[in-house]
# Entry
Amino acid sequence: MTQTSHALVIDGLTIDRPNGQPLLRHTSFAIDRAEVVLLVGPSGSGKSTIVKLLGGLLENGPGEWRVSGRLHCGGQPMDLATERSPVGGIVFQDHALFNDLSAVENLRIAADHAAHPPDAVLIDGATALLDGIEPTQTVSSCSGGQRQRLAIARTLLADRPVLLFDEPNSGLDVAMARRLGELIRDLCRSMNKPALVVAHHVKDLLPVADRVLLFDTRNHRLVEVPRDADAIEAALLALDDSVPPASQPAGLTETGLAETGLAEAGILRSAGKGRDWRKEVGHRSRFHWFLRYLAEYFWELCVSPLMLIYMGAGALIMGFVSMWFGFHYNSFGGYLKSLLHDETLVGLGLVQGTVAVPLISSILFVARNNAIIAADIGNRVLSSQFSAMQNLRITARGYIFSAILINMVVGSLILLVVSLGMASWASMQTWHIQFPMQSFELWRSHFFRKLLPDGLHPAFSMVWVLLKVALSSLLAGGAAIVIGCGKKESVLEINAAIARSIIVGVTLTLLVHAVISILTL
Ligand SMILES: Nc1ncnc2c1ncn2[C@@H]1O[C@H](COP(=O)(O)OP(=O)(O)OP(=O)(O)O)[C@@H](O)[C@H]1O
# Structure
């Protein structure tokens, strides 16, 4: 097939599954500008795979999917065997909105990472879909339909040449599905872009489709079928060996679309109202987004109130326990009180400051944060947020992973200092209860003798303390990211990842502390 006026041409496409089984064989198809094409086929036939391929998300190579064929979409043709398709903007079935960002931030981040910053016309067009949504609204507070419109607007702002909708009508009632179909058709017409729409329930989308492609699983091809619900259903049933011909239901008649219109249906807004959103979707630099994620994870991993209470309680208990039991409950208790008081204080200060508090602080920090990281990343995997980021040209590594690792290191050091301070204070108060006649100055001069030799500057050994705390947090955070990024198909898998991440993180922490403490004794 040669490129004519078509917006998208796929030539000689062959796809093999990772297990070697064929999915498509030498298939060609084309989509015109402003054309809406439905892609139908049995479950598991490969519809989503085509969407992923066109959206540049299909892993291609040894041990992965095998793809060959050519793609034409303006400019030079691409070899799909070696290049990722840059043409498709995907509206994911589960919307894949970034639920840590507000509604407007979901749009901004897409606009700021588009190949070309969207102009006012595109912003107006995209934000015209957002009736009833407040810019600062959280994603979780949006209704299902609002999320869908937000997801479509976000994809439009990324300004890819082809729109891909993966089962956009699943879970919608008939009226909503029809309004969505009209919306897709109107967007294609007004933006002069082609749309490929994967659909299981074709009846509601058929009226807006220009053509229908069927995934012929017998011959591993895409074939065009008439725009007729009966014909499509018959073709789908013919591909399903498990359905006997007699059980095939009577054909469905194509219904005309209700003449409701988008404005009446509340889907389109007036241009005047859309301007509120336009002001909000301006250009922000990558550095802005880096700081945005850095701040988000700083709050989440380092200074959330519960975190501070939990770490503070650990430090206070550590300070109390080491002083109380250090003086009271050992075989030399009586002698220690009278003869070895000063040296005991020095020893307790050293052990508490260089071993016990750093270890407890690290374990508490890593255990809590590894759970959060694995849950956060696992949720992003399960809800296709990383796929959406990739499709929107947003690098997760650049923002999310780096923000997590930086905060793991910085946060562990900040909280170490806070923990040392609180544990020392608890020790001092405990000691004062034990020896009410002694001055605090006596405690201070002995307890810190090896930690702050000149009374002001930390001893060099504290460098090793900082190193083991920072290194263990970095390694544990890295492990949590890797574990979180593994394939997730259910919440149960996220739960398992959380448990694994805590175990691996705490084990790494114990090992790093043990090795560095022994090496620097
Ligand atoms: N890693 C893999 N290894 C082997 N086969 C795979 C792999 N991933 C997916 N498949 C298979 O590839 C086929 C295509 O999957 P795809 O999700 O594209 O189907 P689909 O038509 O979108 O299905 P549905 O309509 O049920 O969502 C399925 O049969 C699936 O089992």
Observations:
- The mean pLDDT is 87.
- Residues 95-159+255-283 form one domain.
- The chain has three domains: 1-87+160-253, 95-159+255-283, 286-519.
